[in-house]
TrEMBL record:
GO terms for molecular function: transferase activity. Keywords: Transferase. Coiled coil: none annotated. This is Glycosyl transferase. Residues 6-143 form the Glycosyltransferase 2-like domain. It comes from Isoptericola cucumis. SUPFAM superfamilies: Nucleotide-diphospho-sugar transferases. Pfam families: Glycos_transf_2.
Amino acid sequence: MDRLQIIVVTYGRPDLVARCLSSVRLSAPDKTTVHVVDNCSPDDTPDVVAARFPEFILHRRKSNDGFAVANNEVLSDISADYVLLLNPDTEISPGILDQLLDGMDGAPDVGIVGCRLVTADGTLDHAAKRRIPRPWTAARYFALRLVGRTGTAYTAPDVGEFDVADVEAVNGAFMLVRSEAVREVGPLDGRFWMYAEDLDWCVRMRSQGWRIVYDGRVSATHLKGGSSGRTRPLRLNFHFHRSMVLFYLKHQRGHPLVDAGVVLGIWLRFALSTAVSGLVQAADVSRAAVRSRAAVAGS
């Protein structure tokens, strides 16, 4: 029996996928099986995986039904003690999985462990350790992000970057999960096409008595948005806000008038962010056109 199964869900960007899988190849402990679930990539990503990583099990999906559904293809039949959900824009180093697995072996009440995630410039990915957002904390978080700050309760500021501590949620980019907990709680909720499925899973795990732990002693690199771009395309932005609505109505529903106000606020934010994104893209196109004309004039 395997000790660990690793699931990497892919959609395009074969360059990032190859870097991720190369790091997995170098870092996976003994008795590990790696599953690559391709979500009907529009390019040659699955062919690259098949050619360069033949030892990994490749699942070629015929449609893109979202992150949760793709992971559930493997989660529905786990045959190892633990399973690692790993984003394709993430890279791991030798030794970190052995350390985390040994820690989970000694703490049988821990359902999920996340590690310190660092971005390309070496700074902490603020979503590596989280509290479950309430409407007010979420609003404050988004407001602070507009001015380049993230110091809200959502980012679990009471837990140090290099600490080991219980948290309410970790990031779905790197989630090491006990298979017993998956069998008890169930797989990811497939209604979340993308975003918030990790928060939902952590809430469900904790409701069944499983601990969620952030271990800042070990790190992985997370090139946030690497497979979807630095800004969310309209489709992903829609699903981000749709997932916020689903999560709120599933876990935080209250008075009908309050619920209506929260849902309306989320969709208003979607409309505003879409408008701002459109203006930014238009400005980028305009600047590119000016640079092109200048280059032609100077030649």
